[in-house]
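Problem 3 from the worked examples.
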Amino acid sequence: MIPEQIPVNNHFGNNEATQFDFDFFIENETQLKVTHTDFQGNETYPVLGVDYSIKSLGKKNGSYIEFPLADSKYNVLGWDLSTDRKELLTIELNIPIEQPAEYQMSAKLSLKNIENSFDYLTRICQILRRLLDRALKVSESVADMNMNLPLPVPNNVFKWNETGTSLENYDIIGENNAFKSQLLSDIDAAQAQMNATINKNKKDTDDEISRFESETTEKIDQFKNSTSLEIITFEENTNIELASMRDHLNDTMTEYQLQTNTDIEDFKLSVNDKIATVSEAAEKIGELEDAMNNAIQKADEVAQKADTVETLANQVSEKADTIMTTVENLANKDLSNLSEKGEARFNAKVDKELFDSEINTLNNAVSQSKTDCENNLKQTKNDLTVLIDKKQDGEIARQIQNCTYEGINLEEKFADEIAAAGDVYKWLESRKNAGNFSGIHIGDYFHTNITAGTVAGYNIAAQNFKCRIVGINTYKNCGDNVIGNMLYVMSDEVIDTPIKWNPTDNNNGTATQKNPWLASAAYAVLNGVNNYSTNAYQSAAHGANASAKGILQLLPTTLQSVLKQKRMLLDERYSASGLLTGSTTWAWGDGGKLWLPNEYEVYGCAVRSNLCQTAGFWHPEAGLSIQFPWFANNCEHRIKRLSTGGRTSWWLSCPASYNATYVCHVSIYGFASSYSTGHASFYLPLCFCI
């Protein structure tokens, strides 16, 4: 059986695709015709096995071809973004118009052979219908028409005769020359008439000007005679007023000069004060550097002294042990043979208790000396840490100003604070709640991971991520519910499994969820919800069933506990009567604990998205969107990679404008692009708010 279909598939270039479907049955490779049309409209025919290959034969629903092959003269099917021209690859069914099966008189006919013959004839009919659909046709309501073409005549065209019943030759060049000749004649006549009119109008105008000049001269003479006295009086009064104004101006200038001199002196004093202040600051900076160097030198000296004291203490301890041993040996000797006088002299010389007291005093002094050295060393180290932190912050500020700052590992920089908080996620939440972002900069990062699992049919592998702060309080005090302190975080890597934005090529919402992002499969996969629906125009499938678990549920539970919803202006793009290419209204809503940025937040403007008014529609998200600082002035920061290190394209949250099937993404090369929502080769990063 051959279904109702058109045995032709056209594919336009997008600079990426190398697999191109055809959805009709072919028995062998000769039944497929492939045509390549370049940007200038030139058609060529790629060669099987050299330029393209066919995946499989004999499938009722068709298959696909790989184009171009490695050694092909063709490049990837192109798209010129500057002109929006696209190359075209046409795949057609191409079978001979013949009846290859021969049936003889037989008691047993093969039903399979008959079916194949009918299928072959049906496929020929589909090709013929395709050709007829592309041919000129006459409406069935037209009768008595002669469709025979007249004999060809050079440089003539066809036109309908006066009765509209047949075609005839028409000398369009001769007709055009006659028309041109008549038109030139009419122009010459009109020009002559216009010149005559211009000359007449010019003479009338000259006469009118002469009459006006004569009348004006006469009136001026009369006015001069009547106003001479008034002019003399006006000159006298004007001279008096000018003299008065000169006197006032001189007084004002004198007063202004005095005030200006005073202001200049005050300004000089102020400048001198500021110069002195700057000089003092420079001296303090020099003193700070000297203090730092002295602190380092003192730290070295203290360390040396501590080592010396410790060595002396050890020596004293060794000597004390030697004396104690000697004393004990002497004390243990048999004194019975000594005379009372000798014993008295021995006791007088060696007072064991006094000796023990002196040893204890010496040990205490050594211990106190070591403690003082340790305290001085600790204070010196703290002073050095403060100085080093100040110097490091200054270097970070310089790199940020030059757009060269690549961030530092917060888990290393604030290791002690993070250990006290429990983990980096709780520490970030505590800092955010307190509004304390000291030492935290745009571009700084920490690490997290996801465990392996199955999400909406996708096999997700365990993976580690570098999570980077892309915004700090970017939307603070905005929103219907006031947005407070917030850290906006995105991973450098994408999830290694490619995810479809929607199961079908459709960027509209549904009857139950009119916002395209909240109705998408990408939203469901990230947040672990079931938003799968066919309650849409032409029952198109939207969303996915990820209620068992989503990427969110694969994150560490301590990270999940601090994540916040991203509050957004959400557009509505849905109609039960047809697909829309823009938004119609809006509402406030939550965009998910895991979300994707829109085009404004990455590029700082609308490129392919509907984040602006298009064809009468408008996108409210544009009214509450701003570029995250991490993406400003550095295109490299748009690039995201797989865990293997390779660059890749990644989805955004906004549909394309003037289109009902495309959604925006960041291409593998970093430029803004858009593609079909059902495309299965793009990826999702981790994006969340703390």
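Problem 4, a separate protein:
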Amino acid sequence: MSARLPVVPVVVALALCATATVAHATTFHVVAGGSGADCTQAAPCATVEDALTAHRVAPAADDVIDVGPGIFEGFAADDTADGGLTIQGTLSGSTHQTTLRALGDGIFHEGLTAIIGVCGSVGATLRDVDVDTQGADLGVSAIGVDGDSRLINVHAENQAGSTAGSVVNSCKGSPHIDRSVVVAGDGDTGVMVHQRLAVRNSTITSTDSPAILQNAPGLRSSLRLVVLRSTISSGASSTATILTTGPTTVDSSLVTGGGVAMVMFVGGTTWTIRNSTLDAGEPGYDPGTPAIGFFLVGSPANVAIESSILVDGMQVFQGMGTITCRYSDVPTLDPVVDWTTDCDTGAGTTNTSSSAAGLFVGGAPYSWQLAPGSPAIDAGRPGTLPATFSAFDLNGTKRIQTGASATCPYGPRVDMGAYEAPAVGCIPTRTTLPTVIAPVAPQVGNHWAAGHGTWTPKPASYTYAWVRCDADGASGCVDIGGATRPAYRAVAADVGHTLRVRVVAHTPAGDSAPATSDASVAVVARR
């Protein structure tokens, strides 16, 4: 965030358990320089602490605290009234305008900038903010995400020289990290997992420690780690990028770096790796840095690898179990004592063993996109994907693409690895509608943003047209002259009307059919 943003002392902690029931949810507003006590839109308050106080008078599970642009620092005690609460920052397009920042030694003994949830209990949501520890004690971490809490579109990072051990720390429960970025510097793990965690559409990186560390063998019966359509990387050479002690699923993801890409540390558990790319060490084949490794204690393990690419080998340090590979590109695996392996390659098998140079685009920086003619194209699992598999790759491209074979040559079956090859000759097909993102104050003079929706294959560009409709959002709709950018500033003629946005997606093959968003809330006059 820019240093010019105002710095305001506020609370950034949430605690979550069962809440009292009220008739309706309320939105509380926080802005720099606010002076209101009830945190209304007309009279916003200055701190999140004030907003929490107002919320707790008659809390509802769907209450929202809207935090305006600026850097808000401080801490406060948690409270059992905050279950289901959402704290959301301000966006300008896709850019965060709100930063939550640690103060002193963080929250309580936890040493955290923000606590989202209660360990082993229900959760809340934190979204559309940056969270950092600049200027706080070096032992303070950015976020504790506990219970069934969610981080959505959050960027979390500790300050340089941090001794906190992790950027994000998750306790008991089933928290989610979605569309977020976690950056760990020297000495810090990206995400420390103590029970369950789901990571979706996110990027987690570390410098010299695991990007994800699940380390609670005493809770093994309740552990679970799911990594879906995410990029996980580590610059460490002496540890794993992902180190787990419980059941783990990696789907349509890219795991790179580390001395080993993934390590299973405790037996009696199951790994499922599907439609993913694992490449340890330096990009491409790097001898001595296995893609997956096993250092098992206790019961046997079961590992199932499907439609994936393991650029480097597999190494068993100790333990026993079963490894099965199907429709995957894997290096030759030598027989291992106490392990049953079914990962043969070549004729009579469903697996291949290819050089990294033939698989990927490569280059500087290295790309794990599939090269034209790659043996991984259309070499994954045949037939319809099971419902438990991701239908989209790491780029959001549909795994099995529709279209006539003459115009869409890739698509009869999934490709191996994290990415589908480009669907040459395919006109984009909409998978979700465009959206209109209203400002916190939907009034004249403020900017509205367009979300282009999702398409397959991934378009090269988009065309936008803003539309003004009657208050019902369906009648009297007319294009707004000259409004063809992803952002639109409301004018006096919009008062009492709703806004929609129409999007056309483009690829070299042609233009999509237009897709129009649902209607926004009505525009109001400037107050």
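Solution to problem 4. The first helix runs from residue 48 to 55. The helical segments are 48-55, 356-359.
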